[in-house]
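If you are new to this repository, start here. Below is one unmodified record pulled from the training split, so you can see the exact layout before writing a loader.
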Amino acid sequence: MKTLLLWRDKITRWFTSQNYGYLKTIFLVFSMVLTWFVTPCFERDTFIFWTAVGIFVYTLTSLYLTATVQIESRRVCLGWAFINASAFYTTASLLVNENEAGKSYVLPFLAGFTVITLLYRFSSYISYLLKLNDEKEDYSLWSIGKTKFNNCWFLIVIGIIFSICVFGRERRELEKYTKQKEYEQAVWINIKDWHTETIDGNTIYIINCSRGNVGVYPAHHPKIRNINSRTQIKPIGSPYQKYGLNFFDRLEIKN
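And here is the target side for that same chain:
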């Protein structure tokens, strides 16, 4: 009984202490538990995971060293790093979707960076309200006088750059997938007749078939030089017009 009373007195003194050090420990433990709980809830995506790791490192170092209102406690900075990484990982994992061409990350990254930018913006002031940081406000190059909130232009720029890069990557993958589908759906067609013409100093084979008059440069498609009555061609994609002929970027020939 005496031991229980002793522990009760220690716990009471701990919670009533004015240095609020225990709050910083609780905050760190809470953020770590949150991360531990969130991570297994979603299928592991390497791209999202390593981006979250980068956000963790940036948040930790920035809040401690370069934030507008710096946080003095490493435990609190570490806690916010875990929270920001978890927030991004959760948001992006919830919104990522998969289509025929692969996974789409544009919306997940835009939403994820929006969430962590807001968290980073208000993290120092929230820490002050929770007695986790002594500094309430500080001067910033981007505001007149003191401000309670952190400058987050770097995160905004990085988020936009990431989203643009992801969009470009997905567009290339979609084009690649579309061309592959066109190739798989293309069929061999028989030729009706053919002849050659010299246009602008270049020899062009002109093939009459169900796709109209198709122009073929022998320099691009050497097999056309062996054309015969049994030759078949497989035009892939949409043609473009030149010299009144239909040309294809991709063309297969079977003699």
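Two things worth knowing about this chain: The first strand starts at residue 97 and ends at 99. Residues 95 and 108 are 5 Å apart (CA to CA).
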